[in-house]
Amino acid sequence: MSFIGFLFFIFAFVKEMIFSKTVEYAIRAMIFIAQKSKKGIKVGIKEIAKATDAPEYFIGKILQDLSRKGLVQSLKGPTGGFYLEEESSNCSLADIVKAIDGNKLFTGCGLGLKSCSEIKPCPIHNEFKKVREDIYNMLEDARIGEFSKKLEKKLTFLRRK
Amino acid sequence: MSFIGFLFFIFAFVKEMIFSKTVEYAIRAMIFIAQKSKKGIKVGIKEIAKATDAPEYFIGKILQDLSRKGLVQSLKGPTGGFYLEEESSNCSLADIVKAIDGNKLFTGCGLGLKSCSEIKPCPIHNEFKKVREDIYNMLEDARIGEFSKKLEKKLTFLRRK
DNA sequence: CCAATAAAAGACATAAAAGTCTTTTATTGG
DNA sequence: CCAATAAAAGACTTTTATGTCTTTTATTGG
């Protein structure tokens, strides 16, 4: 199974659930860049698009944005492309989601909730809070660098079958 | 605090997260209809829209759809409106989500996952599975009838303050 | 320096979700 | 039966998300 195929497996779960296409593409791209970066290789948009099966121009835009926000590094010109500095490869899925969609997914109790519902929270309120926390923890624990390592191990395993 | 206000508290959590506006409005409307239905009152679209702070024509469309699918009952003409039969008031939030968005939110392991990832699931895969299950259970447990009962109790409590 | 390369920037296009309006159909009380 | 009422149905508009294209800017190897 291909790298892309494997990613699809994992994110098939998520995509209808929490993440926008933008976030989905961003995460796939970041993992791919991380893998290449570990080998000291910078990758161009075309290659990223092909490898992660994302629309070329769209992923370009997304990475542009992430680059401005410092989650990924880039260099123009020949031998240029996208890459991750040591520090960046330690960023979590949560960081990516935050960078793109803001932290609305995580900020739990907005305006109203602080007053009434926190004092006397309804049962469902608490359940949701828990789910949110679970999602946050999950995304926070999933570091791009770690993730790509694990993926590679699995891939190796899978390829031997 | 008003009924609408209270609902806002609860769904402020959810709306950026899982549910479309359509689902959000649907749930608010259903709870409102349930409360009225318990008193044997049928409610019109205008009243529902006002009470749940949803766009009138839009909630009309949504309830039309839910009505076709049997989740809510309706009657045309004077003294007509929407209401819930005993059976319908026992429907869960999960039922509503399913009726509108299909069960893509719950069907967990789609195509790819059955083969490779289930055999050797990646850590994140399992976490997501758990979150999904949590969400499903939460939505399945939340029955419209029960929910409106609880809300009413809270409302009474709040009003006495 | 210069030609080639690749990202950045900005404008544009398409699709999906959300929201609105008008006409039709069913039901009721008088 | 009839006029009023209210949902059903269908067409339409607006907004947001997604996706595409063109031009500009930075970098490199020769």
How do the strands and helices of this protein lay out in sequence?
Two copies of one chain form a homodimer.
Chain A: H1 3-15, H2 21-38, H3 45-52, H4 56-68, E1 73-75, E2 81-83, H5 93-101, H6 111-119, H7 123-141, H8 144-160
Helix pairs in contact in A: 2-3, 2-4, 2-5, 2-8, 3-4
Chain A binds a DNA duplex (30 and 30 nucleotides) through residues 20-22, 44-46, 55-58, 60-61, 63-64, 67-68, 74-82.
Question: What does this 3D model show about the protein?
Answer:
Two copies of one chain form a homodimer. The first copy, chain A, contains eight helices and two strands. The first copy, chain A, is mainly alpha-helical. Chain A has a two-stranded antiparallel sheet with strand order 1-2. In chain A, a hairpin with a 5-residue loop joins β1 and β2 (81-83). The radius of gyration of chain A is 18 Å and the shape is globular. The model of chain A is unreliable at 1-17, 108-124 and 155-161 (pLDDT under 50). Chains A and B meet through α1, α6, α7 and α8 of A and α1, α6, α7 and α8 of B. Chain A binds a DNA duplex (30 and 30 nucleotides) through α4.
